[in-house]
Amino acid sequence: MEDKRERRCFDKEFKKEAACLVTEGSRQVSEVARDLDIHSNVIPRWKREYLEDIGDAFPGKGHMKPEEEEMRKLKRSLADVTEKRDILKKALAIFSKHP
After folding, report:
1. What is the DSSP string of the chain?
2. Residues 64-73: tens digit of each pLDDT
3. Which of 75, 22, 90 is nearest to 50 (CA)?
4. Same domain (yes/no): 13, 57
5. Is the separation of the CB atoms in 35 and 81 below 8 Å?
6. Same domain, 49 and 14
7. pTM for this predicted structure
8. 57 shares a domain with 19
């Protein structure tokens, strides 16, 4: 019989605090992991994500950072404009054939 652990979810503040304990404190990754009862491989990743973008680190499941959200909106807008242009091209070709 296999003993599988259920995947746990941690909120933004928990991840920030764990990353801060390692970056700003003088504590080791293994010590923080043991105290928080999490795997020691997780904390270096949280630390890296936190240091890459301190203000917008850990946006949450289903959320994007502001730059990513803006890029997604621009891509969607470009796709809409391209589709409208293609429709107009086809309409022009149809109407130019029949005087």
Report:
1. ---PPPPP---HHHHHHHHHHHHTSS--HHHHHHHHTS-TTHHHHHHHHHHH-TTT----TT---HHHHHHHHHHHHHHHHHHHHHHHHHHHHHHHH--
2. 777 888 999 9
3. 22
4. yes
5. no
6. yes
7. 0.53
8. yes
Residue 73 counted as domain residue: yes
Cα gap 18→46, rounded to integer Å: 8
Q: What are phi and psi of 21, to 5 degrees?
A: -60, -35
Extract the tokens encoding 14: 């928990």
Tokens of 12: 């933004």
Residue span of the structural domain in which 93 resides: 64-99
CB atoms < 10 A from the CB of 22, how many? 19
Task: Look at residue 2 and tell me if it is in a domain.
Answer: no
In a domain, 79, yes or no: yes
Q: pLDDT by residue (tens digit) across 3-51?
A: 566 777 888 888 888 888 888 877 888 888 888 888 888 888 888 888 8
Looking at the structure, tell me whether residues 57 and 16 fall in a common domain: yes
